[in-house]
Amino acid sequence: MAKKQVSLHVVRLSVLVLLSCFVNYSVCKQIKTYKLSRGKLSVTFTNYGAVMTSLLFPDRHGKQDDVVLGFDTVDSYKNDTTYFGAIVGRVANRIGGAKFKLNGQLYKTDPNEGHNTLHGGSKGFSDVIWSVENYVPTSHITFKYHSFDGEEGFPGNVAVKVTYMLIGENKLALKMEAKPLNKPTPINLALHTYWNLHGHNSGDILSHKIQLLARKITPVDEELIPTGEITSIEGTPYDFLEPRKIGSRIHELPGGYDINYVIDGVVGKHLRKTAVVSEKVTGRKMELWTNQPGVQFYTSNMLKSVVGKENAVYEKYAGLCLETQGFPDSVNHKNFPSQIVNPGESYLHVMFFRFTAH
Protein backbone atom coordinates (compact mmCIF):
# COMPACT_ATOMS: atom_id res chain seq x y z
CA MET A 1 0.00 0.00 0.00
CA ALA A 2 2.81 2.43 0.94
CA LYS A 3 4.75 1.82 -2.26
CA LYS A 4 1.64 2.35 -4.39
CA GLN A 5 0.76 5.62 -2.62
CA VAL A 6 4.28 7.04 -2.94
CA SER A 7 4.65 5.84 -6.55
CA LEU A 8 1.37 7.44 -7.64
CA HIS A 9 2.36 10.70 -5.95
CA VAL A 10 5.78 10.74 -7.66
CA VAL A 11 4.27 9.79 -11.04
CA ARG A 12 1.71 12.61 -10.86
CA LEU A 13 4.44 15.15 -10.12
CA SER A 14 6.83 13.80 -12.74
CA VAL A 15 4.26 13.66 -15.56
CA LEU A 16 3.08 17.20 -14.89
CA VAL A 17 6.67 18.46 -14.80
CA LEU A 18 7.37 16.82 -18.18
CA LEU A 19 4.22 18.26 -19.76
CA SER A 20 5.01 21.75 -18.50
CA CYS A 21 8.46 21.55 -20.07
CA PHE A 22 6.85 21.95 -23.49
CA VAL A 23 5.91 25.44 -22.32
CA ASN A 24 9.18 26.44 -20.67
CA TYR A 25 11.88 23.87 -21.34
CA SER A 26 14.84 25.90 -20.06
CA VAL A 27 13.40 26.10 -16.56
CA CYS A 28 11.32 22.94 -16.27
CA LYS A 29 14.13 20.60 -17.28
CA GLN A 30 15.74 21.40 -13.93
CA ILE A 31 12.75 20.55 -11.73
CA LYS A 32 12.51 16.92 -10.64
CA THR A 33 11.08 14.74 -7.90
CA TYR A 34 13.06 12.41 -5.64
CA LYS A 35 12.25 9.65 -3.15
CA LEU A 36 14.10 8.34 -0.12
CA SER A 37 12.94 5.01 1.24
CA ARG A 38 14.26 2.76 3.97
CA GLY A 39 12.65 0.62 6.63
CA LYS A 40 9.32 2.11 7.66
CA LEU A 41 9.83 5.55 6.09
CA SER A 42 9.23 6.82 2.55
CA VAL A 43 9.81 10.51 1.89
CA THR A 44 9.51 12.44 -1.37
CA PHE A 45 10.92 15.82 -2.40
CA THR A 46 11.17 18.26 -5.26
CA ASN A 47 14.13 20.54 -5.90
CA TYR A 48 11.71 23.44 -6.27
CA GLY A 49 12.10 25.04 -2.86
CA ALA A 50 13.82 21.86 -1.58
CA VAL A 51 10.27 20.91 -0.58
CA MET A 52 9.35 17.75 1.33
CA THR A 53 6.21 16.72 -0.57
CA SER A 54 5.23 13.60 1.39
CA LEU A 55 6.25 11.36 4.27
CA LEU A 56 4.69 7.95 4.83
CA PHE A 57 5.03 5.79 7.93
CA PRO A 58 2.79 3.10 9.45
CA ASP A 59 0.27 3.33 12.27
CA ARG A 60 0.03 0.78 15.10
CA HIS A 61 -1.66 -1.69 12.73
CA GLY A 62 0.91 -1.27 9.95
CA LYS A 63 -1.29 0.96 7.76
CA GLN A 64 0.76 3.54 5.87
CA ASP A 65 -0.45 7.14 5.60
CA ASP A 66 1.03 10.33 4.23
CA VAL A 67 1.36 12.66 7.24
CA VAL A 68 2.54 15.77 5.37
CA LEU A 69 0.21 18.37 3.83
CA GLY A 70 1.04 19.35 0.26
CA PHE A 71 0.16 19.30 -3.43
CA ASP A 72 0.13 16.81 -6.29
CA THR A 73 1.79 19.17 -8.81
CA VAL A 74 4.95 21.25 -8.86
CA ASP A 75 3.00 24.16 -10.34
CA SER A 76 0.87 24.21 -7.22
CA TYR A 77 4.02 24.66 -5.12
CA LYS A 78 5.06 27.52 -7.39
CA ASN A 79 1.78 29.31 -6.67
CA ASP A 80 1.74 28.35 -2.99
CA THR A 81 1.37 30.96 -0.25
CA THR A 82 1.38 28.44 2.62
CA TYR A 83 5.07 27.37 2.32
CA PHE A 84 4.01 23.69 2.44
CA GLY A 85 7.08 21.55 3.18
CA ALA A 86 9.58 24.18 2.01
CA ILE A 87 12.98 25.33 3.17
CA VAL A 88 12.47 29.03 3.96
CA GLY A 89 15.18 31.71 4.10
CA ARG A 90 17.55 33.54 3.77
CA VAL A 91 15.92 34.63 7.04
CA ALA A 92 12.93 32.56 8.15
CA ASN A 93 10.02 34.08 10.06
CA ARG A 94 9.54 37.86 10.23
CA ILE A 95 11.72 40.95 10.03
CA GLY A 96 9.87 43.93 11.47
CA GLY A 97 9.60 46.94 9.16
CA ALA A 98 11.46 44.96 6.45
CA LYS A 99 14.75 46.54 7.48
CA PHE A 100 17.75 46.09 9.77
CA LYS A 101 21.14 47.65 10.44
CA LEU A 102 24.38 45.72 10.16
CA ASN A 103 27.78 47.30 10.85
CA GLY A 104 26.23 50.75 10.56
CA GLN A 105 24.55 50.14 7.20
CA LEU A 106 20.78 50.03 6.75
CA TYR A 107 19.44 47.15 4.67
CA LYS A 108 15.88 47.12 3.35
CA THR A 109 14.37 43.72 2.64
CA ASP A 110 11.31 42.85 0.57
CA PRO A 111 8.10 43.76 2.49
CA ASN A 112 6.01 40.79 1.35
CA GLU A 113 3.69 40.79 4.39
CA GLY A 114 2.38 44.29 4.94
CA HIS A 115 5.31 46.39 6.13
CA ASN A 116 7.31 43.34 7.17
CA THR A 117 9.39 40.61 5.54
CA LEU A 118 8.22 37.00 5.93
CA HIS A 119 10.37 33.93 5.21
CA GLY A 120 12.96 35.77 3.15
CA GLY A 121 10.70 37.89 0.93
CA SER A 122 8.52 37.41 -2.14
CA LYS A 123 11.06 35.06 -3.69
CA GLY A 124 12.81 33.44 -0.79
CA PHE A 125 14.52 30.06 -0.79
CA SER A 126 11.11 28.35 -0.98
CA ASP A 127 10.57 29.78 -4.47
CA VAL A 128 13.86 28.99 -6.19
CA ILE A 129 15.15 25.91 -8.03
CA TRP A 130 17.83 24.08 -6.07
CA SER A 131 20.37 21.80 -7.71
CA VAL A 132 21.07 18.29 -6.43
CA GLU A 133 24.62 17.66 -5.27
CA ASN A 134 24.21 14.08 -4.09
CA TYR A 135 21.39 11.54 -4.12
CA VAL A 136 21.27 7.96 -2.81
CA PRO A 137 17.63 6.74 -2.76
CA THR A 138 18.12 4.50 0.29
CA SER A 139 20.11 7.05 2.25
CA HIS A 140 20.11 10.80 1.57
CA ILE A 141 19.71 13.74 -0.78
CA THR A 142 21.63 17.01 -0.73
CA PHE A 143 20.24 20.16 -2.36
CA LYS A 144 22.36 23.26 -2.90
CA TYR A 145 21.67 26.87 -3.82
CA HIS A 146 23.75 29.98 -4.44
CA SER A 147 22.09 33.05 -2.92
CA PHE A 148 23.35 36.20 -4.58
CA ASP A 149 24.32 39.56 -3.08
CA GLY A 150 21.22 41.76 -2.80
CA GLU A 151 18.74 38.88 -3.16
CA GLU A 152 15.49 40.14 -1.55
CA GLY A 153 17.64 42.92 -0.03
CA PHE A 154 20.08 40.75 1.94
CA PRO A 155 23.83 41.45 1.77
CA GLY A 156 26.47 39.13 0.32
CA ASN A 157 26.71 35.91 -1.62
CA VAL A 158 25.90 32.77 0.36
CA ALA A 159 26.45 29.09 -0.46
CA VAL A 160 23.61 27.01 0.95
CA LYS A 161 23.22 23.24 1.34
CA VAL A 162 20.33 21.17 2.70
CA THR A 163 20.66 17.42 3.33
CA TYR A 164 17.78 15.09 4.18
CA MET A 165 19.02 11.75 5.53
CA LEU A 166 17.29 8.53 6.58
CA ILE A 167 18.77 6.88 9.66
CA GLY A 168 17.85 3.34 10.62
CA GLU A 169 14.26 2.30 9.89
CA ASN A 170 12.32 5.19 11.42
CA LYS A 171 14.46 8.33 11.71
CA LEU A 172 14.94 11.38 9.49
CA ALA A 173 17.69 13.95 9.92
CA LEU A 174 17.90 17.34 8.25
CA LYS A 175 21.10 19.37 8.05
CA MET A 176 20.94 22.98 6.81
CA GLU A 177 24.30 24.62 6.12
CA ALA A 178 25.27 28.06 4.83
CA LYS A 179 28.51 29.95 4.27
CA PRO A 180 28.72 33.69 3.55
CA LEU A 181 31.26 34.23 0.78
CA ASN A 182 32.02 37.94 0.89
CA LYS A 183 29.91 39.91 3.43
CA PRO A 184 28.43 39.44 6.90
CA THR A 185 24.75 38.57 6.64
CA PRO A 186 21.86 37.26 8.74
CA ILE A 187 21.02 33.58 8.14
CA ASN A 188 18.10 31.70 9.67
CA LEU A 189 16.79 28.72 7.70
CA ALA A 190 13.72 26.68 8.63
CA LEU A 191 11.72 23.66 7.46
CA HIS A 192 8.05 24.62 7.00
CA THR A 193 6.41 21.19 6.93
CA TYR A 194 2.77 20.88 8.03
CA TRP A 195 2.23 17.64 9.96
CA ASN A 196 -0.95 15.66 10.60
CA LEU A 197 -0.16 12.28 12.15
CA HIS A 198 -3.65 10.93 11.42
CA GLY A 199 -3.01 11.52 7.70
CA HIS A 200 -2.80 14.66 5.60
CA ASN A 201 -6.47 14.38 4.55
CA SER A 202 -7.95 13.40 7.94
CA GLY A 203 -9.22 16.75 9.23
CA ASP A 204 -7.79 18.93 12.00
CA ILE A 205 -4.98 18.35 14.50
CA LEU A 206 -6.82 19.65 17.59
CA SER A 207 -6.97 16.17 19.18
CA HIS A 208 -3.23 15.60 18.71
CA LYS A 209 -1.26 15.80 21.94
CA ILE A 210 1.91 17.84 22.05
CA GLN A 211 4.70 18.36 24.53
CA LEU A 212 6.99 21.36 24.04
CA LEU A 213 10.14 21.38 26.16
CA ALA A 214 10.23 25.13 26.51
CA ARG A 215 9.39 27.30 29.51
CA LYS A 216 9.50 30.66 27.73
CA ILE A 217 8.21 32.37 24.58
CA THR A 218 8.97 35.57 22.68
CA PRO A 219 5.66 37.53 22.72
CA VAL A 220 4.54 39.36 19.58
CA ASP A 221 2.47 42.40 18.62
CA GLU A 222 -0.62 42.44 16.41
CA GLU A 223 1.57 42.00 13.29
CA LEU A 224 3.31 38.95 14.85
CA ILE A 225 6.57 40.90 15.30
CA PRO A 226 8.37 40.12 18.59
CA THR A 227 8.21 42.85 21.22
CA GLY A 228 11.72 41.96 22.41
CA GLU A 229 10.49 40.42 25.65
CA ILE A 230 11.13 36.84 26.74
CA THR A 231 8.35 35.69 29.07
CA SER A 232 7.31 32.62 31.05
CA ILE A 233 4.53 30.34 29.80
CA GLU A 234 3.46 29.42 33.32
CA GLY A 235 -0.30 29.61 33.74
CA THR A 236 -0.92 30.46 30.09
CA PRO A 237 -2.40 28.53 27.14
CA TYR A 238 1.17 28.28 25.80
CA ASP A 239 2.21 25.82 28.53
CA PHE A 240 2.83 22.40 26.96
CA LEU A 241 5.53 21.23 29.36
CA GLU A 242 3.27 18.27 30.01
CA PRO A 243 1.59 16.61 27.01
CA ARG A 244 -1.97 17.82 26.33
CA LYS A 245 -4.35 18.21 23.42
CA ILE A 246 -3.60 21.09 21.09
CA GLY A 247 -7.26 22.08 21.09
CA SER A 248 -7.65 22.08 24.88
CA ARG A 249 -7.00 25.83 25.29
CA ILE A 250 -6.70 27.07 21.72
CA HIS A 251 -9.99 28.98 22.09
CA GLU A 252 -8.21 31.30 24.54
CA LEU A 253 -5.96 32.62 21.77
CA PRO A 254 -6.81 34.89 18.82
CA GLY A 255 -6.70 32.51 15.85
CA GLY A 256 -4.52 29.79 17.31
CA TYR A 257 -0.87 29.10 18.06
CA ASP A 258 1.79 31.00 16.12
CA ILE A 259 4.61 31.77 18.53
CA ASN A 260 8.33 31.18 19.03
CA TYR A 261 9.24 29.02 22.02
CA VAL A 262 12.62 29.34 23.72
CA ILE A 263 13.83 25.75 23.93
CA ASP A 264 15.04 24.68 27.38
CA GLY A 265 18.73 24.00 27.93
CA VAL A 266 22.02 25.45 26.73
CA VAL A 267 22.43 26.18 23.03
CA GLY A 268 25.50 24.44 21.69
CA LYS A 269 26.73 21.62 19.53
CA HIS A 270 24.49 19.02 21.17
CA LEU A 271 20.90 18.43 20.08
CA ARG A 272 18.15 19.19 22.58
CA LYS A 273 14.81 17.45 22.69
CA THR A 274 12.25 19.97 21.51
CA ALA A 275 8.83 18.41 20.99
CA VAL A 276 6.79 15.21 21.12
CA VAL A 277 3.57 14.91 19.09
CA SER A 278 1.19 11.96 19.34
CA GLU A 279 -2.13 10.96 17.77
CA LYS A 280 -4.43 8.56 19.66
CA VAL A 281 -6.38 6.89 16.82
CA THR A 282 -3.35 5.74 14.83
CA GLY A 283 -0.91 5.52 17.73
CA ARG A 284 1.64 7.51 15.75
CA LYS A 285 4.25 9.57 17.56
CA MET A 286 6.83 12.06 16.26
CA GLU A 287 9.76 13.27 18.36
CA LEU A 288 11.98 16.21 17.42
CA TRP A 289 15.47 17.32 18.49
CA THR A 290 17.43 20.36 17.27
CA ASN A 291 20.51 22.51 17.89
CA GLN A 292 18.60 25.78 17.44
CA PRO A 293 17.49 28.16 20.23
CA GLY A 294 13.82 28.40 19.22
CA VAL A 295 10.89 26.59 17.64
CA GLN A 296 7.85 28.21 16.02
CA PHE A 297 4.69 26.30 16.92
CA TYR A 298 2.05 27.10 14.29
CA THR A 299 -1.38 25.49 14.01
CA SER A 300 -2.11 26.46 10.39
CA ASN A 301 -4.43 29.25 11.50
CA MET A 302 -4.44 30.87 8.06
CA LEU A 303 -5.37 27.83 5.98
CA LYS A 304 -8.73 28.20 4.28
CA SER A 305 -10.10 25.80 1.64
CA VAL A 306 -6.68 24.97 0.17
CA VAL A 307 -6.99 22.09 -2.32
CA GLY A 308 -4.09 19.71 -1.75
CA LYS A 309 -3.00 16.18 -2.54
CA GLU A 310 -5.65 13.74 -3.73
CA ASN A 311 -8.13 16.66 -3.83
CA ALA A 312 -8.05 16.95 -0.04
CA VAL A 313 -9.33 20.32 1.14
CA TYR A 314 -7.19 21.76 3.93
CA GLU A 315 -9.01 24.05 6.35
CA LYS A 316 -7.89 25.93 9.46
CA TYR A 317 -5.99 23.68 11.92
CA ALA A 318 -5.43 20.98 9.26
CA GLY A 319 -1.76 20.67 10.20
CA LEU A 320 0.85 21.75 12.72
CA CYS A 321 4.29 23.21 12.08
CA LEU A 322 7.34 22.87 14.32
CA GLU A 323 9.87 25.22 12.74
CA THR A 324 13.14 25.08 14.67
CA GLN A 325 14.91 28.39 14.18
CA GLY A 326 16.71 31.40 15.52
CA PHE A 327 14.37 33.89 17.17
CA PRO A 328 12.14 35.93 14.82
CA ASP A 329 13.32 39.49 14.07
CA SER A 330 16.63 38.83 15.84
CA VAL A 331 18.30 41.37 13.55
CA ASN A 332 16.35 44.11 15.38
CA HIS A 333 16.68 42.82 18.96
CA LYS A 334 20.14 42.83 20.52
CA ASN A 335 18.97 40.67 23.43
CA PHE A 336 18.06 37.81 21.05
CA PRO A 337 20.70 35.29 19.89
CA SER A 338 22.50 36.77 16.89
CA GLN A 339 21.86 35.41 13.40
CA ILE A 340 24.77 37.28 11.81
CA VAL A 341 27.28 35.00 10.11
CA ASN A 342 30.59 36.39 8.84
CA PRO A 343 32.72 35.24 5.89
CA GLY A 344 34.90 32.37 7.11
CA GLU A 345 32.17 31.24 9.51
CA SER A 346 29.51 28.60 8.91
CA TYR A 347 25.83 28.34 9.77
CA LEU A 348 24.62 24.88 10.84
CA HIS A 349 21.04 23.93 11.66
CA VAL A 350 20.18 20.32 12.51
CA MET A 351 16.77 18.69 12.97
CA PHE A 352 16.34 15.05 14.00
CA PHE A 353 12.97 13.25 13.84
CA ARG A 354 11.98 9.85 15.21
CA PHE A 355 8.69 8.28 14.08
CA THR A 356 7.02 5.45 16.00
CA ALA A 357 3.56 3.93 16.53
CA HIS A 358 2.18 2.19 19.62
Helix content: under 10%
Radius of gyration: 19 Å
Largest sheet geometry: 9 strands, antiparallel
Beta strands, count = 28
- Number of helices, where a helix is a run of at least 4 consecutive DSSP H or I residues: 3
Helix/strand/pairing class, anyone?
A: mainly beta
Instruction: Please state the overall shape, judged from the principal axes of the Cα atoms.
Output: globular
Distance between the termini: 20 Å
Mean pLDDT: 93
Primary descriptors:
about 350 residues; mainly beta; nine-stranded antiparallel beta sheet; five-stranded antiparallel beta sheet; 3 helices; about 10% helix; globular
Describe this entry's structure for a reader:
This protein has helices at residues 2-20, 25-28, 74-78; strands at residues 33-38, 41-46, 51-58, 64-66, 86-88, 94-95, 99-102, 105-108, 117-118, 131-136, 140-147, 158-167, 171-180, 185-186, 190-192, 209-212, 214-218, 231-232, 244-245, 258-263, 272-278, 284-290, 294-298, 306-307, 313-314, 321-325, 340-341, 347-357. It has 358 residues and is mostly beta strands. The strands form eight sheets. It has a nine-stranded antiparallel beta sheet, with no helix packed on it. A five-stranded antiparallel beta sheet has the order 18-17-20-23-26, with no helix packed on it. Strands 1-2-3-4 form a four-stranded antiparallel beta sheet, covered by helices on one side. A hairpin with a 4-residue loop joins strand 2 (41-46) and strand 3.
